[in-house]
Amino acid sequence: MLSNTCKTAIKAVIYLASKEESEEKSGVKEIAQCINASEHTVSKILQNLVRQKIINSIKGPAGGFCITKEQRLQPIITIVDTIDGKDLFIKCGLGLSKCSSAHPCPIHDDYKKGREIIRELFTTKTINVLCEPVENGLAYLIG
What angle do CA 127, 82, 31 make, to 5 degrees? Predict the structure, then answer.
């Protein structure tokens, strides 16, 4: 359901959130290595997230990317909406343009249920909540 770009964005934000307390700034190369992604892709994603004020960018020799305590309180849906768009959770599971309750695709009802569960997850879980198990060593960003 989520694009690879969106998954990478979520991992990058969680990584930055795990560094927030130490007030460390992270560079593109470091983030890309730690989440096992291409530097080019991570760079473009981070620029987009900065434009949407999901994360911050500091220029200069001591600069890099970071996130504030307030930004950590954002729901994950803000990242999903920024990267994959707001209509992600209304699209047909098979990609049909005219799928609806009146004209359903073969997986319409089941896919709709799954889509609603995932939307609820991303709407209720904050960056902070997803970051905690990473900070505590109970979850990982690469596998």
Answer: 55
In terms of Cβ atoms closer than 10 Å to its own Cβ (0-12, 13-18, 19+), residue 113 is exposed
Neighbours of 40 (CB within 10 A): 10
How far is 10 from 7, CA to CA, in rounded Å?
5
- Token pair, residue 104, equals 């359903």
pLDDT at residue 23 tops 80: no
Q: Tens of pLDDT along 37-91?
A: 999 999 999 999 999 999 999 998 888 999 999 999 999 999 999 999 988 888 8
> Angle between the 39-51 and 28-35 helix axes, to the nearest 10 degrees?
110
Tell me, what's the pLDDT at 105?
Answer: 95
Cα(20)–Cα(128) distance, rounded to whole angstroms? Answer: 10
Q: Which of 142, 10, 138 is nearest to 74 (CA)?
A: 10
For residue 141, give both structure tokens: 């960003």
SS3 content of the chain, % helix, strand, coil (to 5): 55, 5, 40
Backbone angles phi, psi at 64, to 5 degrees: 145, -165
